[in-house]
Amino acid sequence: MVVWLVGCSRFGSSFGPPSGASPGLYSTTTGLKNLDREFGGPRELFRDDAVINYSNLCVPDTSFVVKKEWRELKSVPKVLPVGMPGGILLTRDGWAIDEAEVPNIEWKRYQRQLAAAGVSVAATEPLASALPVPDYFTNVFYDYYPVVGVSYEQVVAFCKWRGKAISYMINRSKPYSPDSLAAEHVVVESRLPTEAEWEQAALAKRGLPFGRKCTESLLEVNPKAATYFKQRSGTTAYISQIQSDIKAYNRTKPSRSFINYNQPEPYFLRLLTPAYVYGGPTNDYRLYNLLGNAAEMIQERGVAKGGSYRDPLAGCTVTSRSTYSDPSPTVGFRCMIRATQPNRK
């Protein structure tokens, strides 16, 4: 029996905090074992979900959300009663979509596991000239920020690796380690979403430009996070000045969009890079940053959806598309994932 540390919320219930809410305790989006042993334990990092507090949010509308539970799907192996960790059920045949964009730390894990298997990681390196800041991939500050600066081919390879890695972990942990011909053998598939799947996750059928009725709410910023905001924004202001300005900002009872687009901001909230993958409220599918933050690759090559932190709000709608040909500081991804037992009759 496999015991999963599930860090996602799904329709009708919650299994705890998002996977990135306790760095090192939960996996992020690969569904593999937690990150403690690989990365030296949890690190004390300020997170956007802790330092920017939104309030008076819209009441969630689940009228267009798939209301199936994992347990109702005959295609889902019984060993996975709560579905795929980090995944939100999207289709009735068991495909889930990642609750968040794949972060840098999961790409680092990918590289580590390839290296441990004796595989060169040179072909997996993000393109240095396509990073938003030079140390974006190497600095632990950005570990839970979306991986960008990677190519379509690199992302497709990552998704395939992830499916194989999770399949291996599940089957190895079951009694007798069933071989690929056994009825108990579990196959995990992972791939990029199609444009139609991505738009379904963005609730395009609702006919609203952003898939939900509101895109902004009141917020309060934590002045104790001034050092965090200094690095995140790239400001040269002193910490004491940032703290003072945050307090003054809070006194105005501000309202802000929780879509990370190129919006008018006080200097300490400006985005030098994409932001924390679990920051801000989710959409009604309980997905983080589907719009804004990093534009997301889909199966249709050269097309990215959702807009980015450098785009205007009009470029972050559920139907807008952008194009790319090479690795970009604004383009990341999330995967689709499904587990089946193809030999079971």
From TrEMBL:
Pfam families assigned: FGE-sulfatase (PF03781)
Domain Sulfatase-modifying factor enzyme-like: 93-335
Signal peptide span: none
Gene3D superfamilies: paralog of FGE (formylglycine-generating enzyme) (3.90.1580.10)
PANTHER family in UniProt: FORMYLGLYCINE-GENERATING ENZYME, SULFATASE MODIFYING FACTOR 1, 2
Protein name: SUMF1/EgtB/PvdO family nonheme iron enzyme
